[in-house]
Structure of Quinate utilization oxidoreductase QutH:
Amino acid sequence: MSETSLKVAIIGFSGLIGKRHTVHVLENASTELVAVIDPSPGAAAIKTTLGVPEATPIFADVAEMLQSSSPVGKPDCAIVCTPPHTHVPISTTLIEAGVHVLVEKPISDTIESGRTLVDLAKKNNVHLLVGHHRRFNPYIVAAKKAVSSGMVGNVLAVSAIWALCKPDPYFDADPALSWRKSRSRGGGVVLTNFVHEADILQHLLGRIVRVHAEEITPQRNMEARQDASHDMAEEGVALTLRFASGTVGTFILSDAAVSPHSFEMGTGENPHIPRVRAGHDGHEAEGDEIDVYRILGTHGTLSVPDLILTSYGAGKERSWNEKLHREKQAIDKDPRVPFERQLDHFIRVVRGQEEPSCTGQAGLEALQVCQAILESIATKKTVDIAE
């Protein structure tokens, strides 16, 4: 494919993630935003607010875009930023039209439909990537390098937390957001947030093969939960994990706990969530990043995102009688945020210049872990995950 700008369409551009993708596509010299798709009444106003050119058409759905007589023609690729239960039908329409797709996580709300989508993309020779943008975060890039190079030795265990407090408007500010608290429509902290963690854990440590979940007592919508037919999604879980390598892990997940221990607060990657550092009074200029992962190995422990490797040092006896040393690992100084890096990667993949990082298959494997967690919550049993 030539180096001319890729024509991009964004589906669901008026949502939180859609807005971020829209801004990055507009700013990227290798992309041209040729269409935005969103049926919401406020889409036109949001288009103006984001600085989308007036000539860029708004369509109610993908079918309308593909059938239009727009002079720019069919897009080369599309970014799907809609609720999870719509990912497969929208992506299917795009793939069948020969459009390369970056679909936001999770790839789907069911394993079966996600697998069908992955197979369809292969059949049509179309790239299907899943928006696990944290793979492009410099802290994760550095952690992957450290683990892969053997700095921690054989990884024995991982301990992790993702916990923060989502405000009520996150769920109720707009009727279109009601899916976020609906289990059947793909809401809940497992599919919305842990799917990122599942992908990163497997990216760093290999495939998860067994999970057990204990649900955290919910704090919201207690009246609705009294109804036996309620569809309220979970707010948190305590997990035990086993990886194919033999590594084991624990994970605390909650979107109702007041806590600094979340990837967003530790790295500052989300501009809407204030960053926290481990200094006095939480002042940003003080201290290291708040840790969310601790990867324990036979040669040392790596905490992430502060990227401190704790070990005895080269040539030293591994013994509790020896003094431990803490060394901060370097990260690259690339100023681009992970969403920008992910978009550049998507461009290179579409142009045939790079192999995809988070394929549809990888996205499906992250979803599979999440579905196993939901099954464990429902059955109160340990769940093995088939390859």
Q: What stands out?
A: Residues 15 and 174 are 11 Å apart (CA to CA).
